[in-house]
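#structure-requests
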Amino acid sequence: MTLLEFLRTIPNFHEYSRKSRILLIAYYLRDTEGMLEFSANSLKKACQGSLKPPSDLPKQLKSLSKGRNSPLIIGNRPGHYYLAKPGLDEIESYLSKSGFLPDYSDKSIKNTVSYLEKIITKVGEENKRKFLSEAISCLQVSAFRATVIMIWEVVMDHLYDYIIAKKLEDFNNGLSRRSDKYSKLLISKKDDFEDINESTFIEVCKSAGIISKDVRKILDEKLGIRNTYAHPSGVEIHQTKVVNFIEDVVDNIISKYKI
């Protein structure tokens, strides 16, 4: 399916704001060409022969990546971005109204499974390799809630190991600067992290300079998703969100913070 064919499935597309058009084109690139990170040039190239891109596209992308619930997240390369959960939610609302949901899910799942299998080969600890293998099995049978929960546990465990190995003093200094009950804690081994709730753990990582503002933003967002899907509820979880969840945490945490 070409970009033009994709956009024609969306009623009144030309009445949409510049922001919405940008997100829809980014979604198309992500799910048809596997382009997880995109730039202004990527979007301009995709628009050739279909529609005229905004003249201030770089400025628009930068603006859409600002704020706690921004639809975009800054990527690993300068001038590159990811679609965040709010962006995916907005796009899927458009597609639901149009009665059209692209049949890209199988391809996305296969690409993600292949990606995770490559990651497993780089994980040194056997228990983590087994855990990731089980997460892949859940993904392949569409057990999306279980996939999200298991991947999140791997990410937290990875950060605990990273801090113990390389940033323990920084983390403890960050704890000591707090004004709550956690200020008296001293971490010496991985089990000690069990005394800190996950949102506080993320806050300390940021305040101690262990993670960046953008990584904290990703972790806060993914923790919210994990919490939503970890309990029985009527909230549905779509394949696109699961794939986005995995790609974000694997690319920006597991692959970035090497032990």
